[in-house]
Amino acid sequence: MSEKKFSKKHEWVSLDGDVATVGITKHATEMLGDIVFVEVPDAGKSVEKEGQAAVVESTKAASDVYSPISGEITEGNKAIADDPGSVNSDPEGASWFFKLKIKDKSEYDSLMSKDEYDKFCKENPS
Amino acid sequence: MEVQKTALYNYHKNLGAKFVPFAGYEMPIQYKEGIVREHISTRTHAGFFDVSHMGQFFLEGDETLIEALEKIIPADLKNLKVNHSKYSFLLNIEGGIIDDLIITKTEKGFCIILNAACKENDIKQISQFLTKNHKYLLNNNLSLIALQGPKSVEILEKLMPGVANLKFMTGSNFEYEGEKLYVTRSGYTGEDGFEISISNTKVEKLIDYLISNEVKPIGLGARDTLRLEAGLCLYGHDLNEKINPVEANLKWAIAKKRKEVGGFNGWEKIKNLLANGSEKIRVGIKPDGKVIARENTKIFSSDNNEIGFVTSGTFGPSVNAPVAMGYVKSEFSEIGTSIQLEVRGKKYGGKISELPFYKKSYVK
Predict the structure, then answer these.
(1) What is the predicted ipTM?
(2) Taking CA atoms, what residue in A is nearest to B219?
(3) Which of B27, B38, B228, B292 should one mutate to test binding to chain A, selecting the residue with the greatest count of A CBs within 10 A?
(4) Is the pTM of this model over 0.90?
């Protein structure tokens, strides 16, 4: 599994061959607060880079989750749909949102590194 | 207008509050623990809420004051005993709700607690009926603290002996730090609790005491989930000037005598609705799954006709499920009726549900 890369919309991506795993960052969960609803995409769905792919709702509001990378969904994480609160406890581990088969690895390469993302969050506080 | 702050603003800041603009005030939406934990600690122990943005409106006057207020408020003010409170409304000439409120009879007149966003207009509306024999004051020198939850009584009784004797929707004066303050047994969470009207100069000391008794600070976020589970309306969402008390399913809050005799704004219309029912009515709604039907979600019948809309919807931490309220055509308002909720373009099943979603435990 490759190193995690990050988007400006607070998603993370890791890559295993041509299959990417996408989730939302810890920073995102801290901004959202208690997560109470998650909708993940079904396998087979095509998503565009920065296109809407999933939904996450906190007690406060609903937010879209975008795919930082284009491709075809191979799996949505049903476990987080059943237990939305688990996204708060392990956002960058077991509580990934979806996996997708990517088309263009350069989209992954162009995302931010961990250090770049941390800096981005500091410079753009919510 | 400049953003206003309550006397506790800096105190909230030190407690780690996240602020949002609300009704012209900077108010805490949540503190460090977050909405769900704040909600649960109110239900299991006790929480305090700074609701000082709400209007504390005092009226005094001769015997004509009751007559004047009864023109715009459909409560039986003539028979309201001193230190007793009623939930009621200000009504416009169409019977629409200008604001919902709690009115308490005081020694010299009345105290009305008004919603923050409405208070300026409310005073304008009320004062139309007042004369030189009546005095009124929106008291901005007072804070209002709600203490809510099962441990509230035990904690407040230690500080102000006698509060335990108050029954729900009654109040009394108490001594605190050499000052007189007013406490009512009431609230907006479905829990036992109190609302304490206290001078801005003493309020921090009261909060110090509450915190030392493990009472958690609760923001507007949990206030909303608590009141919605308790089936209580939020003005500007579940109620507005175009909705009347019959549609709002709040006809219980119009005094029996006033229903018969009238003499208040909108009575003709309300009398007719009381006899014949209204076209739409406020109901509780439970989505079947986990989907949250938020405000403005369209409601459809099981055969796909649009029948209403959601006015409040969230996840209820104590119910551990999504809950909502909204208006549907009256023929679909029976408890258990299957409905559909359109969320993000997709229809999800749901049912008309009994209110409250969470059982209350008021001390009667």
Answers:
(1) 0.82
(2) A60
(3) B292
(4) yes
Q: Which residue of A has its CA nearest to B343?
A: A62
CATH of residue B343: 2.40.30.110
What is the mean pLDDT of the segment spanning A96-118? 95
Q: Give residue B1's pLDDT.
A: 65
Domain count, chain A: 1
Shortest distance between the Cα of B171 and any Cα of chain A, in A, equals: 33
Q: CA of B344, closest CA in chain A: separation in Å?
A: 10
The domain total for chain B is 2
Query: Do residues B217 and B283 both lie within one domain?
Result: no
Measured in degrees and rounded to the nearest 5, phi and psi for residue B222 equal: -75, -30
What's the pLDDT tens digit per position in A58-104? 988 899 999 999 999 999 999 999 999 999 999 999 999 999 999 99
Residues of A with a Cβ under 8 Å from any B Cβ are 33-34, 36-37, 39, 55, 57-60, 62, 81, 84
Domain span at residue B161 reads 9-52+140-229
Q: Which of B291, B315, B344 is opposite residue A59, by nearest beta carbon?
A: B315
Model confidence over B168-211: pLDDT tens digits?
999 999 999 999 999 999 999 999 999 999 999 999 999 999 99
| CATH (domain of B219) | 3.30.1360.120
* B188 SS3 class: coil
User: Using CA atoms, how far apart are residues B317 and B104, in angstroms rounded to an integer?
Assistant: 32
Residues B206 and B354 reside in one and the same domain: no
Q: Residue A50 maps to which CATH number?
A: 2.40.50.100
CA-closest candidate to residue A5, choices A98, A92, A99, A126: A92
Q: B298 and B222, same structural domain?
A: no
| B326 within 8 A of B309, measured Cβ to Cβ | yes
Same domain, B180 and B294: no
Residue from B288, B297, B315, B346 whose CB has the most chain A CBs within 10 Å, to mutate: B315
Kindly give, in sequence order, each residue whose CB lies less than 8 Å from that of residue B304, ignoring residues fewer than 6 positions away.
Answer: B340
CB B171 within 8 A of CB B185: yes
